[in-house]
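Continuing the batch. This is chain 6 of the set; chains 1 through 5 are on the previous pages. Same settings as before, nothing changed between runs. Recording input and output for traceability.
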Amino acid sequence: MSRTLLSARWVIGHEDGRHVVHENGVVVIEGSRVLHVGRGFDGEVAQRVDYGEAVISPGFIDLDALSDLDTTILGYDNGPAWKTGRVWPESYVARGPYEMYSPEELAFQKRFAFAQLIRNGITTALPIASLFYRAWGETVAEFDAAAQAAEELGLRVYLGPAYRTGGQVTNEAGTIRAIYDEPRGLQGLEDAAAFAARIDGTAGGRIRAMFAPDRIETCTEELLRRTQALAAEMGAPVRQHCCQSPTELRLVQEQHGTTPIDWLDRIGALESNWLLPHGTHASERDFALIAERGATLVHCPLVSARHGGLLRSFPACRARGINIGLGTDTWPPDMVLNMQIGMMAARIAGADALRSEEMFDAATLGGARALGRTDLGLLAPGACADITVIDLGRTLQTPDPVQSLMTSASGRDVRDVWIDGRRVMTDRRIPGCDEDADMVRAQAQFNGLIAKYPDRTAGHPPVTEIFRPSYARSER
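Output for chain 6:
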């Protein structure tokens, strides 16, 4: 089996249970695994790649990985959500929700998004997409296409179509309520379970199954109990967004008389395989239950900060023993930017003692722990050869590579990516992808979706009223 030696100014290895830094270090890949990490290597190698002023890092693990054309960016300066197409109006529900993308468009956006994840140094991804523009949930057909795209691109993924027993609707006064179709949701779960059984372990083990019940405020007890039973039987993770908005807290309180995490625990669903974005509205009891059950808090700093939210207790969560992983959950899917925003937001909230390595751990080791994987998120002999190379040659470097990432790098500095020992991106080029052509197609598809926004916006105003421009359009 041939060996490849990678070298750079900085290598982030792993010793005695924690990351370590090797200056002028090397990583040796043999097959799909890491053979050696250190200051040098005396054995024979078939290929050498010297990256110079760069950091060779374990690949990032994205537990809430953007996998569509992100509609949340449309709400950046446009709100409230019920007025700008983020909550279905009753009139739209009455006419019958419909798929706003064709099957071909759904397949394209997964492949496009997966390529973007790789470009940002993400080597393991658990895809997330909005259901607002869907008829109800995600389909097995689009996830078959997603599995094919992941296999061709080389991305390591945990896949499962999102399903739900309920959804949010609003009247024209902005009163948001939940509506339910439990039989439809339970059928979505059964379809997802059949998909999971069929794809788990394919692509040489790079494709695994996950379960993705949508938002906690619109899921029934039966759906969540059944989800956990199926996931436990397979040893698969369950990811569900919760504790992310006042509306969610209100709906859960009205329906179940408690908080989201407490309700999950009361019905016996919350276990160590649960991944919980975002936690920005979690109570102290919620955090205590997450810690007690061994679940993972998935921190998504960028999307939260854009709308004025933050995880106010990153150090306190760590002190409780809560495992924290990171997710991108928005465009761009830049994990470096998410770490930077996470650091800044935490310090603004008073966590002065939070250090760069703690956020880097969340993007690597925290994600691996969430998935029960001791072979991901680190560079050590025997680990999967999932490697992100970040160029630091065009930035002002501090004496430490992780601190340099936090102060002045970005996802655009990711140069090469290796997954399972395969070089899936070289000098920012991904085989089989025409980045320029794909970007043109993605924008045209996104523009088509925006044109349909009046259908699913309260009062059905024109697009120009839903999304107010920053400045008036000049006619001169």
